[in-house]
Amino acid sequence: MSMSEKSYQNKQVLDLLGEIYKIEMSGVNRYLHYSFMIMGYNRIPIQAWFRDNAKEAMTHATEIGEKITSLGGHPPMVAAKVEEKNVHTVQQLLEESLRFEEEAIVNYKKLVLMASDLGDIALEELARAFVRSEVEHADEVRKMMRKPEGA
Question: Do the Cβ atoms of 15 and 64 come closer than 8 Å?
Answer without folding.
Answer: no
